[in-house]
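By way of example, we now present a protein record of this kind:
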Amino acid sequence: MRLVLVGPPGAGKGTQAQFIASHFAIPKISTGDIFRANVSEGTELGVEARKYMDAGDLVPDEVTIGMVKDRLSQGDAQVGFLLDGFPRTVRQAEVLDELLAALLAVLDVVLELVVDDDEVVRRLSGRRTCHRCGHVWHLDFDPPTAESICDRCGGELFQRDDDREDTIRHRLEVYADQTSPLIGYYGELGLLRGVDATGPVEDVTERAINALRRFEA
């Protein structure tokens, strides 16, 4: 199965990508994971990508396309893959079509995780990160005993810049402007399947797997 996972920030793509990829025994290819690794290592790519990520903007195409091309050509991706974070624009979708054509492959399905903006803001703005150990708490879903103190190590909790409501709203505007046209693009191609991404994680996973069963090899 060759699958693209789409949805707004905060829809749970990272979590669902892991479960779905594991269930169907295909590699999860996440540009976000690669960007974060480069940021933490301070590479040239990481420094460039961080400027856009911190502002809630999309990382430019030229930073991502070559990386995705190399990853798709690796052996484990030949039998299938789940792409999380690429494509994010119609132009990137067209490039993906070209990359797959060169590999004599086609995309099977695009799964959209559907969630409204207010729920996204609630999910992301409630996160608090520990300065000392890095653990992430949530004021609603996994609250610490004291709002500003980590239960694990006693470190101070803080709200990351990209978890602030104004940044989240901006990211949603960027998504609506640049990424949501993918829905129309893939819908016209007959590749799009949507699932409700609200509720418990395991319920969303079950809906997603049920929607994808017909594409299983």
